Structure formats: C-alpha cells, structure tokens
Amino acid sequence: MKNNNLFAALRAAFPKDLDAVAVETDTGLNYSWRDLDRSTAMIANLLQSLDLPPGARIAVQVEKSVEAMMLYLATLRAGYVFLPLNTAYQSAEIEYFISNAEPSVVVCSKKNFGWVSKIAFKAGTQNVFTLDDDRSGSLLERAAHCSDRHEVARRGADDLAAILYTSGTTGRSKGAMLSHGNMLSNALVLKDYWAWTPGDVLIHALPIFHVHGLFVAIHGALINGSKMIWLARFDPKLVVQKLPEATVFMGVPTLYVRLLAEPGLNREACRHMRLFIAGSAPLLIETFTEWQERTGHTILERYGMSETAMLTSNPYEGERRGGTVGFALPGVSLRVQDDAGQPLPTGEIGGIQVKGPNVFKGYWRMPEKTKEEFTADGYFKTGDVGKIDERGYITIVGRSKDLIISGGYNVYPAEIEGYINDMPGVAESAVIGVPHPDFGEVGVAIVIAKPGATLDAEQIIAQLKAQLANFKIPKRCFIVGELPRNTMGKVQKNVLREQHKALFA
Ligand code: MCA
Ligand code: AMP
Description:
By secondary structure, the protein is of the alpha/beta class. Helices cover 30% and strands 25% of the residues. The protein starts with 5 loop residues before the first helix and ends in a 5-residue tail after the last helix. The site of adenosine monophosphate has 18 residues, from strand 13, strand 18 and strand 19.
C-alpha cells in the first residue's frame, strides 16, 4: 500500500543532488537538502522515542527558524499532528489551546519556558522542550543523540497531519483538523496551477504558524525541490535586495503595501522574478495597479482558509483580474448560495460554499459545530460572501462571519468584546473593523460605561495589551453613550463602521 504521508511526497521531490542548497538564511547560513533529510530524521526519531500515543499533538510556539520548519517536517515524518501557535499569543490564549488540544509535546522559546511549561504540565503534557532561533534549546540537544536515519511513518490520506486553530465566531477558537491528503492534494494542484519550474527560488518572508507561510509557501517550494531564501521576519529592504536572486514571492497585502514604499522596488530588481502571489486578505486594486506600474508584474491573487487551504486562484497564463480571487482550483467545487440554500445565478451575491479533497476533516472535538458548518450535500460554508461573474472569476465582497483581517491576521470581535465586557465599569462594547492604509483593516472598540461608572479609553487598551496577542488590540477606543441598534435590538455594526471609516484615511 502506498504511503500517503505528506512528508514522503515532499521528500521524494528533493533534487538528486542532496548537497545543493535547500534553504539560505538572512544570517548567511546554508542548509542542504541532505541537512533537511538528516535533521528531520533526528527530530522524528526523538519524537518517536517518547512513546507518544497515536495521533499525538505536537504544539509549537517558537520564533521562526529553519529548525522550527524542520520540527514541522519531522512531526509529519514521524506521523504525529502538528499544532502551530502564533508567537504573539499570551498566557490566556496559550492556556486555552493547550487545554483544548491536550498535546503530548509542547515546544516553546527558552524565555517562555517558565509559564508555558506550567500550563502544559497542568494540562497533562509529559514533554516540554525549548527551541530558539539561534539553533539552541533542549529539543535540538536531545535530537543530537538520535539517529539521522528514519523510515517515514506510514499514514493514510485521511490521517491527521495538523490542527490549526482558527478563531470562532463565539470568541472561542476551533481547531481545524487537516489531513495528509488535504495538504498533499493542495500542494500538487498549486505546483501545476502556478507553473512551478525547476530552478525556481522562493523568498520566504511570512510567519510559519499559519496556512500561508507554513503550507502554501513551504510545501510549494519543497514539492518542487526549490530553494528558499529564508527571512526570519519581513523586512521590505531585505526583500528588495534579495529579489534579483529569486523567482517567486508570496505575501499578504500589507507586505506588498510596505514593499511599494521602498524606493529600490523597480523593474530591474524584479528582473528574474516569475511570480508574485498575494492572499489571506483582500488586495486593494490600488496596490494591484501600482505594483504593475512599478515592477511590470501582475500580482496573482488567490483565496483560501485554514479549514480548506487554497480554494481559488487567478490564472497563471490567462488574465489576472485585480479585485477578484480568480477561479476555483482544479478539484475544488465552489458555489454561491442564498440564505435559503438555493444556488444563485451568475453575478448575484451570496454565501460561498466549497467541496474538494482539500476541505478539512472537521473541528477538533466539536462534532456539532462541524455539522453546522457543512450543508447536507457536503459543502463547507466558508462564511465569506461573494459572486461569480460570467467568465467564472470569483469576487469576495464581504463576510457573513464577524471577522476583522488585520495585516493578514484574523481578529474575532467577539473575543475582544468578551475581554472588554469583563472589565469593571463596562456595560457593553462593540469591536469593528475599519480601513487602514498599512494593515488593510484594523479593529476599533466602541465602549459603553455602566451607569455611574467612568471609563478611560487608554486604560482599556492597556488592559487588553496585557492579556491578548498584540495584533488583536484595537488601534483606537471610544467611550460613547449608546450603540446603534436595529428594531430587533441587535447592534448595527455597519452603522459604526460607516461612522468610523475615515479614522485612518
Ligand atoms: C503587527 N501589528 C499589527 C499586526 N502586526 N497590528 C495589526 N495587525 C497586524 N497584522 C502591530 C503590533 O501590535 C505592534 O503594535 C506593531 O504593529 C509592531 O509589531 P511588529 O510585530 O513589529 O509588526 P511587524 O513586524 O511590522 O508585522 C507586520 C506584519 C505581520 C509583517 C504585516 O503582521 C505579518 O507577518 N503578517 C502576516 C500574517 C500572515 O502570515 N497571515 C496568513 C494567515 P504596538 O507597537 O502597538 O504593540 S493564513 C490565512 O489567512 C489563509 C489561510 C490564507 O488565505 O493564506
Ligand atoms: P483563516 O481563517 O485565518 O484561514 O482566514 C481565512 C479567511 O481569510 C477567509 O475566510 C477569507 O475571509 C480571508 N481571505 C483569504 N484570502 C483572501 C483573499 N485573497 N481576499 C479576501 N479574503 C481572503
């Protein structure tokens, strides 16, 4: 029987010359394909020596490094389930993920070991390792004693490979369960659709705890045996400097906005570039057009979700239409329906639903929630609202889920409102997303005081900062007398958005 482990497919795509450079870092280090093979074998052997139960989760909150990527690949290789966590998450957020996922192994930065290990041990985790971005930490110390040969664990296409927490509309995160088959099918489709060719070089400048940087970028390069130029963090100057050595770049819209502010970004810098890909948030038509004028390249915009990996893409060869996310990818069925569940004709706006080998296996330990999010005929309700034009191009016009996408990170207003409402003196609050020139959209909090209470907007922000990941913090807070409501008594967030839309213009 064929081994459907995603790592087996990635490994099979390594070039013949294992001594060639696979990853070149911004600190001047070169990792060969052999290094990737040996190091992932050692970490996989370490994980397997821990006597973990089948399906064990390996939760990881570490700074971006090539070793962190190797830990991801080693987890696949050993057949366990990878659970990446944003480095911005603070203790309350981490406590929720660890208690919900019950990982057998937790890997964290050395500086966080004290509080993270306390949370992990309390939740029953047996193994807590450290890993820093300077190749130090107990994970690598222990792995150094393990063999560098390892037979890839056999896994079926439906076996779990990763759990990605995606914030819930009720404020609690849900773990989207992705299988080896989900991710491999998506990687193979994209290899073809984006015409990856031998000799392609990817600039990897995204964080590696979400789908974009972890799956789309890493799988894309590895399944093509392509070198990555690895930047520990996004630095627009450095990207422009590295462009002449690369052929492919992927980024959220904020990265493109910041690159356009670099005087060195021009046709000459992009002379070897083949493809610029954008996604995770809407790309403004102004950014799309300005990029064309400055570089001579047309950004290819695509659309995806944690639950589904990539769903649609503008074409590689045909017209890439700004403001659209292109066509459903091969193998993906996509339809637009009205609230009553009826298919809508061309050009009409409704809920986007999808089906395909890339669609996830459900939410971790939430069978009821999973059932709610699928239609009777097996389509997943994305929560995105859009339309399909007569040529088949899909446009996302909004979201039925109350979600803010800020710099490519998702922020769920319900979660922030929950924290604000718990503060003394607060009667209620509404968090809305408003346009922002850098992050695309940012959160703004509108807060009502309890009768007789006095609130301080600055203090509300400061209290949120102490509890939540930094990108979730509203950029402004207003204390007002009342919230606009409709006849049903529901807060009219559209009215608030309209009132505050020019705040950062
Ligand atoms: C940082 N800050 C932010 C954000 N990032 N505020 C709002 N939204 C953000 N995204 C704030 C911090 O709170 C801080 O504020 C100040 O900016 C500086 O923080 P720093 O960490 O230095 O920021 P940065 O390094 O400039 O980061 C900006 C960034 C980063 C590079 C755009 O946010 C980023 O890498 N975004 C990419 C996210 C991503 O990969 N998304 C893919 C999701 P203060 O000073 O007040 O504390 S995958 C996905 O969505 C799907 C499946 C898909 O389709 O791909
Ligand atoms: P996440 O849950 O973090 O995976 O975010 C997925 C959401 O990001 C989708 O449901 C969309 O709302 C949004 N998204 C991703 N790509 C695009 C895009 N190209 N344009 C607009 N929204 C996007």
